[in-house]
């Protein structure tokens, strides 16, 4: 990326200034290159002089001047100017900018790819809702965020695996089984109430009816007996099939579905982890239970691993699961997306990972906040179809996959968001999804028209693209690799939809100000050059939509 080149150029300038005595010999921090908030200040800027002022015991503007005097400009940079109180502003050369159109065209579908990950294995685990009910819209948001992050990490050089962690053990599964068996018995005329803490949703009746249709009364037991284990397992599988279908309808597909129960077989990660924590002094026994001594690692309290009845806690399984990921399977980077109700689980998991001897920076957690559904200004809480919660499936069916993904991505993962169902369905520029996709369709129609008129733009000369709107479009396209770098480091994919809107806006502005296909014979050179620019913009916009898991339509 050009900003990396500028960073190197600044570093070399400082070293030259120091070797010539123009600047004192102090340690040089990382040279951060940023985009100025105001375009008139240039394309890039560095505040390095402000950061060096204390160590060099000099005024920032003087330091900036010394650095600028030793900068060797390249064909990409037309100027390096000092601005108070100590910034150095860089402007890209017009010739270099126009040449980037050919670069984008040459890179095609790989445009904006980077090698930040250098092939390291990264794993994303997200959604992972317990298989006891249908997915809600919050699950859909985490699905969009997780799968988009996976796309971005692949684009920047990581080997990525996506995983769904199946909680097929514990109290909730037992309650699910009890509820399902009660519904199953009701289908055969038994007067059985579902458990008070059970799952009253109509979907449980649907699952029970599916089991009766396939197996008849094979699972009926004498009154008072517990639910058959086989029926519980069949019910869980049906829920997982439904969950997988709902996520696939949103473009979310996993490489692996990992079951919690697999952690508790003989010689499993669960047993290995317990032995390791004991050996390293992080386990104690009190009150009849086994505890992880989180306080030894700075936590406020210790946490139970094994209850007094001998059953492992969710926390114990989760430690084993992360040991499996980070140690046994050797992922260098593990990223989890959890619901807001798991916020308190983060510190103790970080402590447990440290206790296992794993570097904490290899483990990241995003806390996904809730989604509020609205129609216009009114909050929607109840499903018209079932009289119960609104499921993800209903929302996808109403507004479509692309609208769901785009709207779910627009807010930072740690912020709550409003999802306006009516806005998501509008076929107008007011709807950002329509606006962005229409930009791609408009580009496609321009290129189609050029082909119909027999215009071959292969020999178009991008150096003719000197109009302000043309230059702005090139600059906006070149931001995409930087956006991907930011997302890969911050795990904030909401930058992508905002960039998509900005790119579409810049293209629409160019289209209004610069006639692309002209009928005048003398305009053929600029027509060819602009068609090259349009083709490059199509690549950038399609790439952005693809990273978000959205379609890039040829017509609308």
Your description of this structure?
- With 556 residues, the protein is of the alpha/beta class.
- Among the domains are: 2-92, Arginyl tRNA synthetase N-terminal domain (Gyrase A, domain 2), CATH 3.30.1360.70; 171-241, no CATH class; 429-547, Isoleucyl-tRNA Synthetase, Domain 1, CATH 1.10.730.10.
- 47% of the residues lie in helices and 12% in strands.
- It has 19 helices and 14 strands.
- It has helices at 2-19, 48-56, 60-69, 94-107, 137-155, 171-186, 203-215, 229-248, 269-279, 314-328, 345-355, 392-399, 401-409, 421-425, 432-452, 468-477, 480-490, 495-513, 524-547; strands at 44-46, 77-83, 87-92, 121-125, 159-166, 256-259, 283-286, 289-292, 303-306, 333-339, 363-368, 371-375, 378-379, 417-420.
- The strands form four sheets. It has a five-stranded parallel sheet, with helices on both faces. A three-stranded antiparallel sheet has the order 1-3-2.
- Strand 12 and strand 13 (378-379) form a beta hairpin.
- Helix 2 (48-56) crosses helix 3, helix 12 packs across helix 13 (401-409) and helix 15 packs antiparallel against helix 19 (524-547).
- It is flat and about 90 Å long.
- The model has no long low-confidence stretch (mean pLDDT 95).
């Amino acid at each position: 990326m050009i900003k990396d080149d500028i960073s190197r150029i600044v570093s070399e300038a400082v070293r030259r200034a120091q070797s010539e005595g123009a600047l004192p010999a102090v340690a040089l921090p990382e040279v951060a290159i940023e985009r100025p908030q105001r375009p008139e200040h240039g394309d890039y800027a560095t505040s390095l002089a402000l950061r060096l002022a204390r160590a060099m015991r000099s005024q920032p503007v003087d330091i900036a001047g010394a650095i600028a005097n030793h900068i060797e400009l390249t064909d990409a940079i037309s100027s390096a100017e000092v601005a108070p109180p100590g910034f150095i502003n860089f402007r890209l050369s017009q010739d270099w900018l126009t040449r980037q159109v050919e670069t984008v065209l040459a890179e095609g579908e790989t445009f904006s790819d980077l090698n930040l990950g250098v092939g390291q294995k990264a794993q994303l685990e997200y959604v992972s809702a317990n298989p006891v009910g249908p997915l809600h819209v919050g699950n859909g948001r985490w699905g969009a965020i997780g799968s988009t992050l996976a796309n971005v990490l692949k684009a920047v050089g990581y080997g990525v695996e996506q995983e769904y962690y199946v909680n097929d053990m514990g109290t909730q599964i037992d309650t699910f089984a009890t509820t399902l068996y009660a519904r199953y018995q009701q289908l055969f005329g038994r007067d059985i109430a579902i458990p008070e803490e059970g799952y009253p949703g109509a979907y449980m009746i649907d699952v029970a009816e599916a089991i009766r249709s396939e197996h008849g009364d094979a699972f009926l037991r004498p009154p008072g007996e517990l639910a058959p284990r086989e029926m519980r397992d069949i019910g869980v599988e049906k829920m997982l099939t439904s969950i997988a279908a709902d996520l696939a309808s949103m473009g979310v597909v996993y490489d692996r579905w990992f079951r919690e129960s697999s952690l508790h077989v003989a010689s499993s990660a669960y047993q290995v982890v317990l032995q390791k924590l004991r050996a390293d002094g992080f386990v104690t026994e009190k009150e009849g239970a086994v505890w992880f001594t989180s306080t030894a690692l700075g936590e406020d309290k210790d946490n139970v691993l094994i209850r007094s009845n001998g059953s492992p806690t969710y926390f114990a399984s989760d430690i084993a699961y992360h040991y499996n990921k980070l140690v046994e399977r050797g992922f260098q980077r593990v990223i989890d997306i959890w619901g807001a109700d798991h916020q308190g689980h983060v510190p103790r998991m970080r402590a447990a990972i440290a206790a296992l001897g794993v570097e904490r920076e290899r483990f990241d957690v995003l806390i996904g906040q809730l989604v509020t559904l609205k129609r216009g200004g009114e909050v929607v809480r109840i499903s018209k179809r079932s009289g119960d919660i609104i499921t993800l499936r209903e929302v996808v069916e109403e507004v479509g996959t692309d609208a769901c993904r785009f709207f779910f991505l627009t807010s930072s993962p740690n912020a709550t968001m409003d999802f306006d169902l009516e806005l998501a369905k509008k076929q107008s520029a007011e709807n950002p999804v329509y606006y962005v996709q229409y930009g791609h369709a408009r580009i496609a129609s321009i290129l189609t028209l050029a082909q119909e008129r027999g215009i071959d733009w292969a020999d178009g000369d991008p150096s003719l693209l000197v109009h302000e709107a043309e230059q702005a479009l090139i600059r906006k396209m070149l931001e995409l690799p930087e956006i991907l770098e930011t997302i890969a480091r911050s795990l904030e994919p909401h930058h992508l939809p905002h960039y998509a809107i900005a790119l579409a806006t810049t293209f629409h502005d160019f289209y209004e100000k610069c006639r692309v296909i002209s009928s005048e014979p003398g305009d053929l050179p600029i027509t060819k050059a602009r068609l090259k620019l349009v083709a490059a913009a199509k690549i950038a916009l399609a790439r952005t939509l693809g990273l978000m898991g959205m379609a890039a339509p040829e017509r609308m």
